[in-house]
Write a structure and sequence with these properties.
By secondary structure, the chain is α+β, with helices and mostly antiparallel strands. Helix content is 42%, strand content 21%. Helix 1 packs antiparallel against helix 2.
């Protein structure tokens, strides 16, 4: 069954892909929450920026049709790294200060939960679209 026949399925599919990317970025942010670098260059949080996706040449008309969502950009957090007093750390500077990523595990976990719920909602909508399409096809063939 083609997504072209079921526009809602195409939209839900794009949402699944976008939320998958968001979950991967969040997992990467969590994995690097304690990453350091001896030159003071630390990992910076990455975020997916979503944007509505439109089909400009839909059905030969002049109006655009919504196709779904896409990740338009992977943004990098511009906040300064945290400065932590850690004179024991091998990457600390002469004053004992260590640059650490400015990432909140609580914020990342909330983002992961939100992305998971959005993924589940898109998956449910995709399944329902398929069920409706299957029933429509069955009705057109004279079935129940």
């Amino acid at each position: 069954m083609s997504f072209e026949l079921i526009p809602a399925a195409k939209i839900s599919s794009s949402g699944l892909e976008a939320e998958r990317i968001r979950m991967e970025l969040t997992a990467n942010n969590l994995a690097n929450v304690n990453s350091t670098d001896k030159n003071g260059n630390v990992y910076r949080k990455h975020m997916a920026i979503f944007e509505a996706s439109y089909n400009d040449d839909a059905r030969g008309g002049s109006t655009a049709e919504l196709e779904g969502v896409k990740v338009s950009e992977i943004a990098t957090d511009k906040r300064k790294p945290l400065e932590v007093y850690a004179p024991y750390h091998p990457y600390a500077d002469d004053k004992g200060m260590l640059a650490m990523p400015n990432i909140s595990p609580i914020e990342e976990m909330m983002d992961m939960i939100t992305a998971t719920r959005a993924y589940e909602a898109n998956l449910s909508a995709l399944k329902q679209s398929r069920e409706i399409a299957d029933k429509t096809i069955a009705l057109s063939r004279g079935g129940n």
